[in-house]
Amino acid sequence: MRNTTDVLRRGFDSTLANWPLIAIRIAESILFVMIVVASIFAAIVPVGIAASFSNFKNVDEPAQAIAAFVVEHWPLIAYIFVVVLIVTIVLVAIHAFVEAGSARVFVDAERSATGETPKRDAFRVFNMDRWMQGGRASWWTVFWIYNIVWGIGGLIFLVPLILTLAAMFLVTETGGRVAVACGGLALTFLVVIPVSMVMALRAQPMPAMRFARDGPRSSATSAVTSPWRSSFSQSRSAARWQSRA
Fold first, then answer.
1. Rg, the chain, Cα only
2. By C-alpha distance, which of 110, 97, 107, 105 is closest to 137?
């Protein structure tokens, strides 16, 4: 079993040897920015046009103004929701393809670099055909890996928000509602940070690498749950060994 230094060294050499993957990720980021900017314009322009022709400014109460806008322009709100949903699916699909192709390259690089201290050139296996093949073969499963992992994370994120909304309905005074809202947002922020870190560790790179290694034999569910089962088994084995010692 390799130690931490060897793992880091091999990962560094593999990354430098297959440097076109870095360029692909930069291109992915640029494409993401372009898609997001275009979607923002596609969503905001209709809202601005609808707001200019609406009469909610004449309503004295802000709550009534918002309610009137929602009732009057619910198709526009549904349109914005559909745009956000489609853009999110497209972004996740693109990222899944990039991750699947990159995982295929890194797995093949690790297999080709045999020996205790292989040279950096031994890791150089990148070509577009290999990357495209890995992306086409694995992107769908990696796509669902992200959906499963971040879907679970999203459900966890909703817990403090739901509790905050329930507490705000129970409080009648305006000052109390503001205090509850601020406390709920702070609690949500404290929950989001560790949960996001855990979800990120689960989503990548282990599940994607596992599927790229096992191919069609690995499903999205098994790719997500196998690291948990492996960690649990190792912890249980370590506990048994310590108890025997």
1. 24
2. 97
Residue 20's contacts (CB-CB under 8 Å, 6 or more residues apart) are 126
Owner of token pair 């404290």: 190
The residue type found at 136 is R
**What's the pLDDT tens digit per position in 60-109?**
555 566 666 667 767 777 888 888 889 989 999 999 899 888 888 988 88
Cβ proximity of 148 and 157 under 8 Å = no
18: CB partners within 8 A, 6+ apart: 105, 106, 109, 123, 124, 125, 126
Helices 206-214 and 220-244 pack at an angle, to 10 degrees, of 110
> DSSP character for 73?
T
Q: Any residues with CB less than 8 A from the CB of 75 and at least 6 apart, and which?
A: none
Nearest Cα neighbor of 227 from 152, 145, 141, 136 is: 145
Q: What is the pLDDT of residue 208?
A: 56
Task: Provide the token pair at 174.
Answer: 């305006």
Task: List the structure tokens of 76.
Answer: 């526009």
Residue 160 structure tokens: 């403090």
How many Å apart are CA 62 and CA 91, to the nearest integer? 35
The CA distances from residue 239 to 3, 163, 227, 230, 233, in Å, are 22, 37, 18, 14, 10
Q: Give the other-Cβ count within 10 Å of 237's Cβ.
A: 10
Contact 183, 214 (CB under 8 A): no
pTM above 0.90, yes or no: no
Q: Would you give the DSSP letter of residue 57?
A: G
